[in-house]
Amino acid sequence: MRHENFWTAFAILAIYALMIGMIMVRRHKQRNSIKDDKKRLAEAESRFRMLDDLLHTLDVGIWSYDCGAGRIVNASLVFHEMSGYLAEHFENGISWRALIHPEDLPLLESCVLQLRQGEAVHAQYRIVHAAGDVRWVQVKMIPTMDQLKRMVRVDGIAIDVTSRYKMEEALHDITEGKKMEQALKESMERYRRLVESSPVAIAVCRQHKLVYVNPAGLRIVGAGGPEDFLGTDPWDWLYEPWEQSKQGRVIERIRKGNVVPEELSIRRMDGAKVDVIVTALPDDETDAVRIFFEDVTARKAAERALIDSERINRHILDIAPVAMVLHSNFECIYMNPAGMRLLGVSDLAQLEGRGYEQFVPPDQIDLVRREVKGVYEQGATATLVESQIIQIDGTVIDIEVVTAPIPYIGDNTALTIIRDITEEKRAERERNAAEKLIRESEERYFQLQMSLDRFSSDLFGMVKISELNTRIVEEIQKVLKTEKVSLVTLNCGSSEFCVSGGVGEFSKDALYAICDRHPEQLPLCKLHETSGGYFVKIGEINGDHSMIYISEKVALLQYEAIKIWLETISRYVSVLYDNFRVIEDLTAELEKLGPSRQPVWLLRLMLHLSENERKRLSQDLHDAALQEQIICTES
Hints:
Blueprint: H1 2-29, H2 34-57, E1 60-66, E2 71-75, H3 77-83, H4 87-91, H5 105-116, E3 121-128, E4 134-145, E5 151-160, H6 162-197, E6 201-206, E7 209-213, H7 215-221, H8 244-255, E8 262-267, E9 273-282, E10 288-295, H9 297-319, E11 323-328, E12 331-335, H10 337-343, H11 365-378, E13 385-390, E14 396-405, E15 413-420, H12 422-459, H13 465-480, E16 485-491, E17 496-502, H14 508-515, E18 527-529, E19 534-541, E20 544-550, H15 560-593, H16 600-634
Antiparallel strand pairs: 1-2, 1-5, 3-4, 4-5, 6-7, 6-10, 8-9, 9-10, 11-12, 11-15, 13-14, 14-15, 16-17, 16-20, 18-19, 19-20
Helix pairs in contact: 1-2, 12-13, 12-15, 13-15
């Protein structure tokens, strides 16, 4: 209907414009006939008034705006009534923009832009009546452009639709009211269900009497139904009666609207004690007081158990024999006494301003940081590792350390357990050294035994002293790992010496060093040390002393086993020297007797030895000839 009125008004406006044009044309053609002009003018004015009256009945305002003058030049009576301003007000400079509601000015600006582009505009906005009230108008505006496409005039019609808007608003208010009423009912129903199903006990007290309690409250007090609870005084349910002064303060606080939770103990129907947290909330509109109470018996027991557990844990940490450090983001939070003893401090204040880097060897700082950061980020216990730590006095000790996360305390929080293993490491090093010494000793004894076996085996085939001298020097050089071994015969009385085997490094200084020891008084086959080396006396004949001389400080001779070996092998040589001298003396005596005077048994022995030597030589020759034949046959 609204659009039909609008287009009817628009059609009437078009008719009105057409009639005005026809009147003007006719007046132009018939201006020579004054009588006809007046008659036609009267007819036109009559039609205009009729049209204006018709538009007045339709509440349609017509106006024309002169863009050059910047004011409304023509307006219908309905437009004046719609705006509350007369024609003279517009002639005195009141613009159409001044009538627009301030909040709708941006809409008007957009309409003006479209008009300047030659487009007709259909819009609705609010205007401010001369009396001050706001009215809604529906407007159709048509621009008139000149040859330069400039807007010179705007013609428009306006329909007052305020009553329609008020009716729509009234209908909207009725609808909204019904919606609010329905929403209120639904809210009350939800509130009732919420109260009934709430795990928190809710009660209503009026004039010191309980008038309502939800199922949660009945469960807390152990009531079989509302009749066991309603009508009683809330203060009668306290497990231990309060003092009058305390009860009065609480009542006064409730009256003033101070909502402060209180921890109380109430008595159940069966006499058991229940710990609750009670909050009383007064109703400003009535004298009722809403009471909220929650059973915290289990929580209180858990809190007491937690406090006891924390006390026990703290005591365990304090008496623990290993160091424990609680830290967060590499900052120490707590350290037990064992940890302070480990670092060599008596008070945690001594650690202020000191980072963990000052207690970690420089070459291990990056490794420690990576390990602890990995525990923070991954939340997994690190591997037990051996490391070192620097005490506050600079002493470095060996430790065994492991770090575990403590997530329930906070992010990036962990506990590091440190055990001092300095004594264990020292004992381990000593044990390893002892084991090494044992292994070396066993190997040394084995080598020395092999040396004695090898040397004693070689002695059976020796018949010359020179061979013996060469063999003993080689064996001593091989075992002692030195080339500076000599066999020396010296005479302290004449200060003469003779090197009969080994290297020739034997000087007068060595001679004097040995003579100062009075070798004639020294026992055979005993090792003696001089400033330049070692010597062993292996024989003595007519003031000449036979010596094994070592012309340097051999490290192996610090071992007792090597000394015993050297003295033992020297004793072998000394015995052989004596045997060789006995044989030589016997041979000399036999030579003096001559062949005719030699004993028969000796001749037989010599013959037997000669035959054995001849057999051995024949075998060697036979083997050599056979070998040559084999070689010739193969070639």
